[in-house]
């Protein structure tokens, strides 16, 4: 199944903007059309998980960036929120893991989001990376090789 990732990101951003009234910007470097052959509904779910986390753990606008270079599709979701402490990084993708129960209690959630995100990325033989600084924000980047 081949679809336009830019369009999917726009749709997902619009949907979450309407629901949560948060500004979500979509940026693309080269073209308006990034064809990805992947499981569209799983990629949608992946975007929802990452944007939903950005909404929960930040207050400023959220930035989604998309690009394609040499048959690798990359996208990231960036927020300027509370960030993730360095020592928690290794556990983020474990099921039911949540950073510091106290700070997370108010946001709800069970700690499944990122473990599902990781699984979806693995299914596509991709890579997921987390860049984060406490009090500055978090960027989660995904790279998915484009099948030929
Ligand atoms: P849910 O199952 O509803 O997604 P959750 O958000 O707690 O619940 P994960 O998405 O797996 O679970 O995230 C795990 C933990 O990583 C969160 O509890 C949160 O502390 C931290 N985290 C994830 N994304 C961010 C982010 N954008 N900014 C700060 N912390 C984050």
UniProtKB/TrEMBL annotation:
It is found in: Cell membrane. Its main location: membrane. It comes from the Bacteria. One of its GO terms (cellular component) is plasma membrane. GO terms for molecular function: ATP binding; phosphorelay sensor kinase activity. The keyword DNA-binding does not apply. Residues 1-148 form the Histidine kinase domain. Keywords: ATP-binding, Cell membrane, Kinase, Membrane, Nucleotide-binding, Phosphoprotein, Transferase, Transmembrane, Transmembrane helix, Two-component regulatory system. This is Signal transduction histidine-protein kinase ArlS. It comes from Paenibacillus sacheonensis. The lineage of its organism: Bacteria, Bacillati, Bacillota, Bacilli, Bacillales.
């Amino acid at each position: 199944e081949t679809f336009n990732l830019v369009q999917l990101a726009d749709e997902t951003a619009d949907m979450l903007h309407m629901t949560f009234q948060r500004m979500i910007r979509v940026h693309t470097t080269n073209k308006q059309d990034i064809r990805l052959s992947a499981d569209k509904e799983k990629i949608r779910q992946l975007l929802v998980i990452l944007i939903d986390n950005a909404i929960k753990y930040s207050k400023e606008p959220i930035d989604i960036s998309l690009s394609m270079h040499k048959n690798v599709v990359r996208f990231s979701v960036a927020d300027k929120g509370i960030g993730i402490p360095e020592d928690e990084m290794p556990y983020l993708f474990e099921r039911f893991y949540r950073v510091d129960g106290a700070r997370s209690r108010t946001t709800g959630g069970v700690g499944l989001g990122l473990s599902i995100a990781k699984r979806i990325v693995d299914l596509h033989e991709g890579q997921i990376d987390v860049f984060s600084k406490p009090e500055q924000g978090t960027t989660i980047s995904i790279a998915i090789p484009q099948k030929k």
